[in-house]
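anyone seen this seq b4? input:
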Amino acid sequence: MTTPILAAVLEKPGAPLQIRELLLDDPEDNEVLIRTERVGLCHSDLHYLKGSLDISLPVVLGHEVAGIVERVGSAVTRIKTGERVVATVTPSCGACRNCISGRPTQCERVDSMRERQRPRLLSPDGSSVESLGGIGAFAEAFLVKEASVAVVGSDLPPQVACLLGCCISTGVGAVIHGAKVGPEDTVAVIGCGGVGIAAIQGARLAGARRIIAIDAVPAKLELARNFGATDTVVSSSDPTETLIQVRSLLPQGVSHAIEAVGRSQTAELAFSLLRPNGTATILGLMPTGSELRIPADALVYGDRHLQGAYMGANRFLSDVDMFTDHYLNNRLDLDAMVTKELPFERINEGFEAMAEASTIRVVLNMTDRQL
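predicted toks r here
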């Protein structure tokens, strides 16, 4: 028996999302059906919306989500109905080589874990509709595998809980797990959107002695200081000018550079900011076919490192508890990161608001519908 729901469907890149009725399948044995409370608008969603990243169409985007468990499959043991949960696009099996070595975001079985026997979503005419990352949270309800969700307490409000699934897991996770920043380190964060601000907070939590926020928009840098940046640099269209500004603060360069924009130029800038033995960690998703060029002598002679950290190399199930404790003890500021909350039917307006200088995260309120 299927459940009728309203969902925002991407039918053509560059076109507005269309809110229409779909049919959500029943949970399979190891799945949970979640009624959506809040969902954040992420730049990766925007990439798919604009067509800079490929995805099968039609599709329901959305993955940074919190909701209440409404139904569980017969084989579900860890999750109970009525619990508030957050979801991740990187479920892990816990048993493969990458999982047991502490890299669950690179689980070797992630694709098979997302597979299901029947289509998750159907149009009323019976045609299937895809869902991003096995979630598809721009909808009144969604289905995910039990391995994709973590329980959060009722003392964590849904408008900030949803951030844990992507923005915080990626930004804070990249600093703690990917870059392994410590008190001796100096950190530059390129891009002060949601993930960048989360990385700044992660660097502060890790005790970094200097945190340089870099962005082309001065208003973003003012916000960055509120979250822990010790220094700010207005980036130039000429990367050399930006490099000069950073070197005026730290002549040898930084020990860690975190890129949270998703452009080849900013990834290359991250590498150029490094001191010898430094590490550049690239977080931003880039358009299909993007390539990087870095100077070989700086790489080899300087023992510099360039690495990715997909979804921040997070350890989702244990990280959620850590993030929650830091939030409840006023060490991780999630409330101020939610700069706009809109009802579901204004989702396209929300994506437009992402370009505003004051925006860190736009969150959709799925329980306050005006449809």
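The longest strand covers residues 31-40. The chain has twelve helices and 18 strands. kinda curious what u guys think
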